[in-house]
Amino acid sequence: MLGYVTLGTNNLERAVAFYDELFASIGAGRFLETEQFVAWAKSPEQPGMAITKPFDGQPASVGNGVMVAIQLASTDEVDAFYQKALELGASCEGPAGPRGDMDGFYAGYFRDLDGNKLNGFYLNMTPAD
């Protein structure tokens, strides 16, 4: 159902450098690019994420309650993705680990260089008998 998510930036060059390295760490690369925005995905047939300078010309701002969640294949991938984001200058919004009463949900939360909130997560839900 989801095609792609777009986040705003006030410094496209800096944001693109951050996401090029971060998404390369999980096997995703650029699939669309203009002077206004860049989008990444593991393949053009899979959901992606884009960074854009706002089309209305106003400064980009962070939405309160808005978050992009990147699904990964294991807790080790979550740990590595979260650490890579921090190495690239992201700020911690909650270290990678199990989350609350949601058995099987493991996530690490961070804010990118523009303050957008993201997480890497792994979901291992075993069906109830």
From TrEMBL:
It comes from the Bacteria. SUPFAM superfamilies: Glyoxalase/Bleomycin resistance protein/Dihydroxybiphenyl dioxygenase. Gene3D superfamilies: 2,3-Dihydroxybiphenyl 1,2-Dioxygenase, domain 1 (3.10.180.10). InterPro entries: Glyas_Bleomycin-R_OHBP_Dase, Glyas_Fos-R_dOase_dom, VOC_core. GO terms for molecular function: lyase activity. The keyword Lyase applies. It holds the Pfam family Glyoxalase. Residues 1-123 form the VOC domain. Keywords: Lyase. This is Predicted lactoylglutathione lyase. The lineage of its organism: Bacteria, Pseudomonadati, Pseudomonadota, Gammaproteobacteria, Alteromonadales.
